[in-house]
Design brief:
It is built from 15 helices and 19 strands. By secondary structure, it is an alpha+beta fold. The strands form five sheets. It has a six-stranded antiparallel β-sheet with strand order 12-14-13-18-19-17, with helices on both faces. A five-stranded antiparallel β-sheet has the order 5-6-10-8-9.
Length: 482
């Protein structure tokens, strides 16, 4: 049994845990990353405790792996790669520090889940831009830091959106605040003067949040973040348009995104739609659907929705698409309730087979069918049936780019199927990367090939890492820090 005295002095009795059963929960996940058993799990409750943990880790030469979401975990980014690492479990830091309706912003700690923030925001007449049906235990801050796309491309201006400001404890043990939160003054003094921690740039001309985003905990530990919110609509209508191939829907999707007409806007194949709904759709259901919603707010909400609906119908006629509020018996409003809320249990991606692996990357919407075709070819070559391949296309930055997410459903109790999925995951990732897919979030086995293409970026990142975490205590072994 590892002694926990020094850590327990920081976090309190019972919050420095060495129970083997607990440690094993952080030892593996659904990814193809091999983790090592941590020596302890520490559960801080404040930024001051996190700062003390980081400083002690520097003194002891101990690796720290931050974690703020519950399972099922799937990417390997929170699996220790160093011996005798400590898991810094931030789920207990779950305060919604501030909700500001006037400025449409929330300031939250890393343990806050989407469900909690969504409920609190709704009470203020606000809504949260979320990823597609996130799991119930998903941390909002973790999602923001990993740049997970939201289903609202209309409000996605910059790749960091909807993240605003951060408080972070760097690997040196220094506390730092980014953007408008940097000062002068305390948060309370800033609020009293009308500030809202909404401007992400700074201090000075450096966008520090972008250094921390996507870093997989290798630069520091975030103890709170401010996030943009949007107004809750007074009227909202949802629509579906079906097609047998995704390319049929492209011109229509581009057409409605350019004038920023829809709020939610995305595309799904039948396999993903079935998983999301929790039911098998009939074979005569279209293989692909474009899904979108339009909203009206406080003033004349129904009238606003009416004229936007008419504008979209005009675009649909020009592009040969027929959107409707019901498709083959499926009500679009029902799907809206699934898309814009955390997933019910079990998590929707585990419903078809019990486990899954995602291949995701960035491209442009017009190139998405090319990558989808390559993945379908690889899946057929590995004898993975089409019903086990879920596909999700999410326009980002108001349609300028596209997040492509390819989900492989499988039964983890079937060794042959699991092995085939792992081989497909590796081969397809390499094939898609060769075709030009941009793996902007290189987890696990993607890190080597992704960073191997850009040695100048690696050199720059290592310099930054040397400044912010000179002793390398923060999640060693991830990204290019090996």
């Amino acid at each position: 049994m590892v002694k926990t005295g020094k850590w327990a002095k920081i976090v309190g009795k019972g919050r420095a845990v060495t129970d083997p059963q607990v440690l094993r929960q952080y030892h593996s996940d659904m990814s193809f990353v091999s983790g090592k058993l941590p020596k302890c799990v520490v559960r801080p409750r404040s930024a001051q405790e996190v700062q003390a943990i980081v400083r002690l880790a520097n003194a002891e030469g101990c690796a720290l792996v931050p974690c703020s979401s519950g399972g099922p975990r799937t990417r390997g980014d929170t699996l220790p790669e160093a011996d005798d690492a400590l898991i810094v479990d931030l789920t207990g830091m779950d305060a919604i520090v501030r909700l500001d309706k006037r400025n449409k912003v929330a300031l939250i700690e890393p343990g806050v889940s989407f469900g909690r923030l969504r409920e609190a925001a709704a009470g203020q007449g606000l809504r949260v831009a979320m990823p597609l049906a996130p799991r119930k235990t998903k941390s909002v801050v973790a999602s923001l830091l990993e740049r997970e796309p939201t289903t609202y491309p209309k409000y996605h201006w910059d790749m960091s959106d909807p993240l605003c400001c951060l408080e972070v404890i760097f690997g040196t043990g220094d506390l730092f605040r980014t953007g408008g939160a940097a000062g002068p003054g305390t948060l309370e003094q800033q609020w009293a003067s009308g500030q809202a921690q909404k401007s992400p740039m700074g201090p000075s001309q450096t966008d520090w949040a972008k250094i921390i985003q996507g870093a997989q905990g290798t630069m520091g530990i975030v103890t709170w973040a401010s996030v943009k919110l949007e107004l809750e609509p007074h009227a909202e209508r949802a629509f579906l348009a079906g097609a047998q191939t995704p390319d049929v829907l492209l011109d229509f999707t581009y057409g409605i995104l350019r004038p920023k007409l829809p709020d939610v806007c995305l595309m799904l194949n039948r396999a993903n739609l079935s998983a999301l709904l929790g039911e098998e759709l009939a074979e005569d259901f279209p293989r692909w659907v474009a899904f979108y919603s339009i909203s009206g707010y406080e003033h004349f909400p129904e009238e606003r929705v009416d004229y936007i609906e008419q504008d979209i119908q005009d675009i649909a006629r020009r592009t040969g698409v027929r959107p409707s509020r019901r498709l083959n018996g499926l009500a679009a409003q029902r799907l809206l309730s699934r898309v814009t809320a955390p997933s019910a249990e079990p998590y929707w991606k585990t419903r078809p087979g019990g486990a899954f692996h995602d291949v995701f990357f960035l491209t442009t919407l017009d190139r998405a069918p090319e990558f989808v075709g390559a993945m379908e070819t690889e899946a057929a070559r590995h004898r993975i049936p089409g019903r086990n391949l879920g596909i999700y296309l999410q326009p980002i930055q108001q349609g300028r780019g596209c997040h492509v997410e390819l989900t492989l459903f499988y039964d983890p109790a079937d060794p042959e199927q699991a092995a085939a999925v792992e081989q497909l995951f590796r081969n397809a990732s390499a094939r898609l990367m060769d075709l030009g897919a941009f793996f902007s979030r290189p987890y696990g086995p993607w890190a080597g090939p992704a960073y191997g293409k850009c040695p100048d970026t690696v050199a720059a990142l290592k310099k930054v890492k040397g400044i912010l975490d000179p002793r390398g205590v923060m999640n060693p072994g991830k990204l290019c820090f090996r």
